[in-house]
Amino acid sequence: MMIGVGLTLSVVALLTVVFRDRIAYLMRTWPRLLGSVSRATGALAGLVLVAVAAVEIANWLAFT
Question: What pLDDT was estimated at residue 60?
């Protein structure tokens, strides 16, 4: 079991380093694209939150 835990932690650490290097490369080569994707992701998350809130409010109003 300890071998499995150690292996899992090692893989996660390795993937973290690789992902960090790839993000750094993207930030150096495509800063505007990364900024656009970041803003679009934020906007999408905001829309999802508004939609969930609207559904919850509608459900609350239906049961009162």
Answer: 93
